[in-house]
Write a structure and sequence with these properties.
The complex is a heterotrimer of chains A (about 650), B (about 100) and C (about 180). Chain B is mainly α. Chain B is built from 3 helices and no strands. Chain C contains 6 helices and no strands. Chain C starts with a helix and ends with a helix. Classes of the chains: A mainly alpha (about 650), B mainly alpha (about 100), C mainly alpha (about 180).
């Protein structure tokens, strides 16, 4: 059995090697040789993936645990660096390292001839390292380390082309918004520590403690703090997973290179919030009020982002809003305590969202950076393979029967319906969101691949299929987005491999949550039929609305009018809640307080100067005379001492 | 009529005062240096005089400290004379009131 | 009684020759008076039961330091300057200051009860060396101070060589190049 720490070690080594390459070549004009750098960049994620696969094959049901050593050893906090490899982290790691490797291979083609080639891959490897630490850590503190590392890497990669101010601002925004969420995570950990000491930071100890407290009935004493902790952890999750209210950074994150978007959206970063919810499932099922909040935040986010997706013109922006919307689905599933379903949706979503992003990247690459869909069109004939990949991803995301998204979304909708008295209403809105999803994704596909080409002549001349390093990962992912769903096909009896895999981790929690409600079971075929109907209606609407000449593209790709106010609603909200108060405080400090301090400084300086001018008159030039003065001073001190000693 | 401990201190004080006076009133740089040496000697005498008033264990310090004072005085005289030579070469004068290059 | 007589003799010599330093016109006379003062101080040390310090006083102070001083005075013959007055207006101000300070200190000394302690150890060579080089853990630790003093003397020597060499050495090398 290979040790667990190999999994994060490989990307770390890759980071160090690539950082050395990047630094040592920083003086040369051409940069390092792409072949060697690319090979190193791809090798380490693949090695990490292979070790995950090796570990997965022989994993016992209760998981593998390994402790490297003591991390913090103080009177207040004792934390070990330990890794936990169980059903949940296995699934997460498989697609994090697997899809991460595919995206790394793709990036070798995408970042071709970029001067900062090595730096880019150093960041990518660091990203994978942070994410594996996040998922593999056996305590909240180690997860937090990865959580912060992921935030750092997103900042570095979104602002990767840092010579453009817009990109840097987007990177800053991602970092700062994430920090707000991170505060929630930190405070949540503090809540847990104040309940039961630092031992509760470990997942195993936390679960054991909760179980013990539940059986003893002492849980109600800790309930207020536990609820607060759950709420704060959820707040942290909204930051990383781009939920209301901290979702504004994700659309702006499109400023980074496209593989980065794929990596953030599919394999890393945004999935970490869902992971944390599933990891803390035993905590969350005890606090149904917080779970309801999770449900409604997810519902609102999914619906809002789906509408916002309709207004976007940038191809990547549409995908960004679709990611937020799909994350909303995952949070809805977690909100009704269906953690295994939400992780299943993370899993399938990773495939089709990576396929969609890499396809979009190939389109952008061949159009030399054009992202506005109004200047695309008719690419089906020119890039047949890319179109095929995108269409597979499209069918998966709208839930076309048989594709990956169909199975997971279907399960989510079914669980929503049976969740309780509010279930049917939530189900209705979620189904409506599914229709809207099909509409905006259909709009994307139609505007990009059908109709007539509307872009510039120069770009049309060299539209080409992507190179092999980019095509092969795309094709693998499109196959995955077609068939990954069969790991848990609800309609086919016996095909619930995925549920069994996660059962040891979240099964107990879900069984506890389902004690409360026994819903009337409808036939799963009804849900499947309604879901399919929603997808088909959405495609039909998209077909009627958008299969017509697109108006000439004017101005930027940002939405106008009502679309803009809908899209930027939360940016406005942040502006009012966060930015303007900060600016007011900054103005106060800068103008008022600073001037007061300056005035005081000037006043004191002036007084001292005037006094100094006066005192300078007393200065004696002759050294001997100065020494005599100091003697007189000594005599005075002697008199003082004598008086103090009672002699005078 | 016996030797009193305060007599020693009085002699030390007299020597110290004379040393200080030599240092501060004479303008010849050699006298300045000699005055410092005289003052240091007075301090040594004072130390030994005080050592005689202390019990056994503590009095040993009074025998050791003058040795260090003498060593420091030797170092001081060494550097001081070297500086005098240096300054004399450039100023051609031993009057310290002429050494006023650093005057503010 | 005898000790007092010796002390008075030696003390008068010491203070008197110190006054000679203050009042002599030529630095060479001053230096020689200082030597006398130091030798008589060494006698007082011996009288007070510190023969080792007295011997060091004669060897280092009266011997080495004063010899060096006398040597430098003789080398720099310009030390004999009759233009510089012995005392000037500044001295008129300095003297009272010093006297005030001395008077205060004397007052403090006289009003402090001081008495000889019978148990005081004699500062013999054996005692001094044992105390100075007691390297045991609970010892006074003077040996470290001793090392530091050694370092100080070394650095003083280097500083003196560098300072004095700057001008003198340059001329010497010039002469040497002329010879060859």
């Amino acid at each position: 059995m290979i040790p667990l720490w190999l999994i994060p070690l490989f990307p770390l080594v890759g980071t160090i090697v690539l950082a050395i390459i990047a630094l040592s070549s920083s003086d040369s004009k051409q940069g390092p040789a792409e072949s060697i750098t690319g090979a190193v960049a791809v090798l380490f994620p693949i090695l990490s993936f292979l070790s995950v696969v090796t570990l997965s094959v022989g994993m016992p049901v209760e998981g593998i645990r390994g402790t490297i050593g003591t991390w913090i050893d103080t009177a207040a906090i004792q934390v070990n660096i330990g890794f936990l490899f169980d059903g949940l982290s296995r699934v997460m790691l498989l697609f994090i390292t697997g899809i991460g490797s595919l995206i790394a291979i793709y990036s070798v083609g995408y970042m071709h001839k970029d001067r900062s080639f090595a730096r880019f891959f150093a960041y990518i490897n660091l990203f994978l390292f942070s994410m594996t630490i996040l998922v593999l850590g056996d305590s909240l503190l180690l997860t937090f380390l990865g959580w912060e590392g992921v935030g750092l890497c997103s900042y570095l990669l979104i602002g990767f082309w840092h010579t453009d101010l817009k990109n840097t601002k987007a990177g800053n925004k991602a970092f700062i918004v994430n920090r707000v969420g991170d505060v929630g995570f930190l405070l949540g950990m503090l809540c847990l520590v104040s309940i039961g000491g630092s031992a509760l930071l470990s997942y195993d100890a936390l679960n054991a403690w909760l179980l013990n407290a539940l059986s003893l009935g002492s849980i109600s004493n800790a309930m207020p703090l536990l609820s607060l902790a759950g709420l704060l952890f959820f707040f942290g999750c909204t930051g990383k997973s781009a939920q209301i209210p901290l979702l504004t950074w994700l659309p702006d994150a499109m400023a980074g290179p496209t593989p980065v978007s794929a990596l953030i959206h599919a394999a890393t970063m945004v999935t970490s919030g869902v992971y944390l919810l599933a990891r803390l499932s035993n905590l969350f099922v005890l606090i149904p009020a917080v779970l309801n909040i999770v449900l409604f935040v997810g519902l609102l986010t999914a619906f809002w982002a789906a509408i916002a997706g309709l207004f976007q013109n940038g191809i990547k922006k549409v995908l960004a809003y679709s990611t937020i919307s799909q994350l909303g689905y995952m949070f809805m599933a977690a909100g009704v305590a269906a953690f295994d379903v939400s992780i299943f949706h993370v899993f399938t979503h990773a495939f089709f969202k990576a396929a969609l992003f890499l396809g979009a990247g190939a389109v952008i690459h061949s159009l030399t950076g054009e992202q506005d869909m109004r200047r695309m069109g008719g690419l089906l004939k020119k890039m047949p393979l890319t179109s095929l990949v995108m269409i597979f991803g499209f069918l998966a995301i709208i839930g076309f029967p048989g594709f990956a998204g169909f199975w997971s979304k279907d399960l989510i909708l079914e669980r929503l319906y049976v969740s309780g008295p509010m279930g049917p209403y939530v189900y209705a809105i979620a189904l409506l969101t599914a229709v809207i999803t099909a509409v905006y994704m259909g709009r994307l596909i139609i505007m990009t691949f059908f109709g007539k080409y509307r872009g510039s002549k120069e770009n049309e001349a060299h539209i080409h299929e992507a190179p092999a390093t980019m095509l092969i990962p795309m094709l693998i992912l499109s196959v995955g987005s077609a068939f990954a769903g069969f790991l848990w096909a609800g309609l086919i009896p016996g095909a619930d491999f995925f549920r069994e895999m996660l059962a040891p981790v979240v099964g107990a929690a879900q069984a506890y949550a389902e004690l409360g409600h026994t819903a009337a079971h409808l036939s799963p075929w009804i849900f499947a039929g309604l879901g399919t109907l929603a997808a088909l209606i959405g495609i039909a609407i998209a077909w009627f609305l958008f299969m017509r000449p697109v108006p000439e593209a004017k101005g930027g790709s940002e939405p106008q009018g009502f679309g803009a106010s809908w899209t930027f609603a939360f940016d406005k909200l942040h502006e009012w809640i966060g930015v303007i108060p900060t600016k007011v405080i900054a103005w106060f400090l800068d103008v008022v307080l600073n001037n007061i301090i300056l005035a005081a400084q000037w006043l004191i300086g002036g007084i001292i100067e005037i006094l100094g001018d006066g005192v300078r008159a007393f200065q004696v030039r002759k050294v001997r005379l100065q020494a005599a003065f100091s003697l007189i001073g000594m005599a005075l001190i002697t008199i003082l001492v004598l008086i103090y000693g009672g002699l005078l | 009529m016996e030797l009193q401990a305060s007599y020693i201190q009085i002699v030390a004080l007299a020597l110290f005062t004379i040393g200080l006076a030599v240092t501060l009133t004479r303008r010849n740089v050699f006298f300045v240096l000699m005055g410092i040496e005289l003052a240091l000697n007075a301090v040594n005498l004072s130390l030994i005089g005080f050592a005689k008033t202390l019990p056994a264990a503590a009095s040993v310090a009074g025998q050791i400290l003058p040795l260090f004072t003498i060593a420091v005085a030797a170092a001081e005289a060494c550097v001081g004379l070297a500086m005098i030579i240096l300054i004399f070469k450039s100023q051609e004068s031993v009057d310290i009131d002429n050494y006023s290059n650093m005057k503010g | 009684m005898l000790a007092l007589i010796y002390f008075i003799i030696l003390g008068v010599i010491a203070v008197g020759s110190a006054l000679c330093v203050l009042l002599s016109r030529h630095p060479l006379y001053g230096a020689l008076s200082l030597v006398v003062s130091m030798v008589s101080l060494a006698g007082i040390y011996g009288l007070l039961g510190s023969p080792f310090v007295g011997v060091v006083q004669i060897m280092v102070y009266a011997g080495a330091i004063m010899m060096l001083l006398t040597f430098v005075i003789m080398v720099l013959n310009g030390a004999r300057d009759s233009k510089t007055p012995m005392f000037d207006k500044v001295s008129l101000f300095v003297f009272p200051a010093i006297l005030v300070l001395a008077a205060l200190l004397a007052f403090a000394l006289i009003s402090t009860p001081l008495a000889f302690n019978a148990e005081t150890l004699r500062g013999s060579v054996a005692l001094t060396s044992e105390t100075l080089f007691n390297t045991s853990v609970e010892g006074p630790g003077y040996f470290l101070l001793f090392e530091v003093i050694g370092l100080l003397l070394l650095s003083a020597m280097i500083a003196a060589v560098l300072l004095a060499k700057k001008n003198l050495g340059f001329k010497e090398t010039e002469e040497i190049t002329e010879v060859h």
